[in-house]
Amino acid sequence: MTQTTPTSGLRSDKSSLKYTQEKAIENSLLAVSTLAVLSIALIFLLLIYQGLQGLTVFGGETDLSQYWSATIEKQELVRNPDGSIKTDADGDFVYEANPVTSYDWQPTSSDTKKFSLVPLMIGSAKVAIPAAILASMVGLLVAIYLSELAPPQVREVVKPALELLAGVPSVVLGFFALVTIAAFVQWFVHIPWVFEFLTQTPGLNRLMFPSCSFEAGPLQQTCLERALKLGTQGTYLNTLVGALGVALVVIPIVATIAEDALRAVPNSIRDASMALGASRWQTAFNAVLPAAVSGLAAAVILGLGRAIGETMVVLMATGNASILSGNVLESGRAITATIAAELGEAVAGGDHYNALFFIGAVLFVFTFALNIMGEIIINRARQKVREGV
Amino acid sequence: MSEAVKYVPISKEDLSYKSVRETFLEGLLSGLSWLLVAFIVAFLGIIVVRGFPTVSANGFEFLYTSPAKGLDEGGVGPAIFGTVALVLLMTLFALPIGVLTSVYLVEYAGGRQSSRIIRAAVNNLAGVPSIVFGLFGVAFFVLFLGRGLDGLLGYSTSDPLFGKPAILWAAATMALLVLPIVIVNTEEALLAVPVSLRQGSQALGGTQWQTISRVVLPQAVPGILTGSILSISRGAGEVAPILFTGAAFLLQDLPTTQVFGVVPFIDPTKQFMELGYHIFILATQSSDVEKTRPAQYAATLVLLVITFSLNFAAIILRAQFRKRAIR
Q1: Assuming Cys at both sites, which of A5, A194, A243, A385 could form a disulfide with A130, CB separation 3.0 to 4.6 Å?
Q2: ipTM for this model
Q3: How far is the CA of B191 from the CAs of B96, B107, B120, B224, B260, in angstroms?
Q4: B14, B20, B36, B103: best mutation site toward chain A, by most A Cβ within 10 Å?
Q5: Parallel, antiparallel, or unpaired for β B256-259 and B263-266?
Q6: Taking 60 as the threshold, does the pLDDT of residue A233 lie above it?
Q7: Residue B233's closest CA among B66, B102, B94?
């Protein structure tokens, strides 16, 4: 920079070497940022493309209904009009193939491969919904307490603890759920009065244990006890254990977003409420909370998105049996865990592989929609605060 | 009117129905918060208490020995090495792209449409489930790029060089996952550099790139470091993206090679053992899950110590950087 002639200025001389250099740098930076965006677009496109490949799994026909249910032939014994089992001349039982609607996820079954998403969606819902409810309750309440009511000394302890929890890798939480939470749940449901409550309440036991919904008696008691102990590999893994583990992942996320939303509420609102004679509690719940409600809603939505997308905790702690059951004390197979457990053995380009990409695309679209929704709500809330409405 | 106005001071002795109820409810909320803290402490305490004896046995040999007898005995040496190698390669990918993208966003694209699109895309990338990155890694990096490279270099699909799970592809997948962390932190650091510094540089005749490279970026280094440390911590803890892109159960060899026959370096085409994946395998797939429980706790403790010390470093760095930015 020894020369300082007027022509060395950028704007004045577009033919100068320096100008070309600067333009080149700007353009290469643009190229790199575009690469970053392209990679995101690529994820999107690739999943959609592979997902569409998944639609052609079944003999080249594009048939979405295969992902809902499949009609399979089921061999059933033929009965005579009088109710006895029909036999042929040799005395063997006669079988007859009847069409049955199946909602199964059995992608590697030896006869008919079944790709119904129903059990997987039930599994995901059984984990994500209880986890999101629990995490939202704890996360929102803690956020309100920390931001509006807690003395600074308390804040200085609770906040770092939450940050610590947020920094724990999900595989560690999965391990913790697998070992400690599973044992805790097992102990809890076997506390006599809890067990009694779960199994003796007429509506509840049918809901929780539909397979034991016959008349009350010792037989049903045995069935219920067995159902409670149900689990894979001798450990008692079920979707409740998974949901508690996932809640631990989601709590810091909900709490952080909710606290940001509460902090964005201008102090003038608090001051005005206090000046009218309201207590801190009244101010928090009647003045600040309504002003921050959209931000809090966004926290819950983003928390739900995270709960649906969580993989390792679900893979390790839910038992992964793809069964049709609404009971959170039974095993379940979530979409994320299905991909994680099965992609390793699926042959690239095969039916199973394409079906896994299809469910991956479903998962992606779903979480993406939730994220965009949360994002839009947060942006609107910010705008509202900025405009002072 | 003059008689009706009566000042009632609100004091702690005010035991009206409302204040009793509020004190009670506030007590509940504070109880919930403390319960959460107690839970977190207990959770970490259990892992430390159960894990430490195994880690510290025989002069911390758990940290550098290989697994023995399948996975039943031995340490996590190769897994620690694999984790470090993974995050090194990942940083190599993510840091330049992330930093350059943020420089473009902050210094060139200001509030333009393109910057809004890039920012929205980056924000959404942060919310994509990690297993989806794993799917993408398999389909794009391993099968498309890897097999494509093999085709160009003349390797067959039965004996591939790149077209198989490898640490290179695991690192690339992980780099995509941590890209938003790098970008967000770098952006924050760049925005914290006062405009007056840029104006000063330009007033002295510096071009935009000279201003960025010699004035703005040096000021933003702590912020960029914070972002990379946080992303390394995230990368060390995530397992789902590497399940199919390169992590292995048990390997005899470290993923290393000799460059020019002498200099040891990470071999990007080999598979590797990773700490988080090792915990997952030990806890769910080993032959006797109960027997390897101490090793599981120990490996968990090692992983937690690594991620927490990284996070701690990032927090300290960020605090100092914010202090400086205020000055």
Answers
A1: A243
A2: 0.84
A3: 18, 9, 18, 12, 44
A4: B36
A5: antiparallel
A6: no
A7: B94
